[in-house]
Amino acid sequence: MRSTEPGPALIRQHQRTAPAAAASPATAASSATADAPATAALSATADALAVPTTQRGSEYAQLSRQIKQAGLLDRRPRYYGWKIAITAAALAAGWTAFVLVGNSWWQLAVAAFLAVIFTQVGFLGHDAGHRQIFGSRRSNYVLGILLGNLGIGLSYGWWVSKHNRHHAHPNTEGEDPDIMISVLAFTSTQARTSKGLARLAFRFQGYLFFPILLLEAVSLHSSSIRALTSRAARFRAWEITLLTVHAAGYLTVVFLVLSPVKAVVFILVQQALFGLYLGSSFAPNHKGMPILDAADQTDFLRRQVLTSRNVRGGWFTDLALGGLNYQIEHHLFPSMPRPNLQHAQNLVAAFCQQQDLPYCETSLVDSYAQALRYLNAVGKLAGQAAAGSPATLAAPAALASGAGQRAALLDEPREGL
């Protein structure tokens, strides 16, 4: 198995040992029910270190059993109950403040606040898409279209379909839609075959990355509209109706309260910051990590761990990134409720250490630095001839082992919405 990405080695992989358990103040203050996953996970971590590698089943099956035994796949209705209530209240408060502030340039502060809340609503939609909130697919879908289509103007059905493909083939050339976008080059092939303005943009893509994210919300809105108008989708009428209600309500309120100039500026600022925050939250997860060939047959465990990166931090990082900072655990167990991810981390890190599998974790700033260095390295290849030996990143040795185990996986990976 080889990695196809060009440039110097850009990945600093942090081999974790299983850290000692220490309850955070927030965890200590929670109820006994909320503490249960943490207690079970710590016990399971200790057990994992003592488990011989000759256990029955694939490596992922072994890890999955430990996760299930620790109760980390159990739903967390209390958490999501108050999380949804607080987020909905914040969204209502933002629009109330918008009306009260009136026709003033202070509305730009409201625009920034609503950009943050829109992103938090998006995180909840992401959790619903992975069936983390309810056990029923229908219940998650209903919540998802209320949050996505009605709340922030994005097609929930289109996004889930796209995100499914990403989870099934993370960082896989020709398969992962997240690395098949026209404005950025993630592989040597994309860079070398570029022409015209694309070639010029790719050469400077490391510098343009964050400015491009200012247009992310516009891209998501337009993709949602195209998806709902160009092909039949499940419950398409409901999605179109809710998306239309959002757009009509948003534009009506903004143009009723503000003068035309202020209204346009408000929309531009609010949507730009929304896109920047949302894009910056997903950026640390995979960019700069190994990119796999389309024909790659690496087993599920290694495919998910070696293409993902965790971000260190405390409760604020968890809140700001919507739990996406536990990307390795999330990709291994997509339906695991967000608050359980931190409790699974010790267990997963210990298991990866036991299997001699690199577990990448770094700070938020360094994750951005790694991503930008990688984009710069790829961008330098824009327009270059493919003749000769292309510079590549050496794939981790662990990536080459375990091929062909995909058929032995448990049901969990197949849920990767």
Question: What's the topology here?
Answer:
Blueprint: H1 25-29, H2 32-50, H3 59-69, H4 77-101, H5 107-129, H6 137-152, H7 156-168, H8 188-192, H9 196-203, H10 205-213, H11 216-230, H12 236-257, H13 260-282, H14 300-306, E1 310-311, H15 315-320, H16 327-332, H17 341-354, E2 361-362, H18 364-379
Parallel strand pairs: 1-2
Structural overview:
The longest helix has 25 residues. The chain has one domain. By secondary structure, the protein is mainly α. The radius of gyration is 22 Å and the shape is globular. It has 18 helices and 2 strands. A two-stranded parallel sheet has the order 1-2. Helix 5 runs antiparallel to helix 6, helix 5 packs across helix 13 and helix 9 crosses helix 18.
Which features characterize this protein?
2 strands, disordered N terminus, mainly alpha, disordered C terminus, single chain, 417 residues
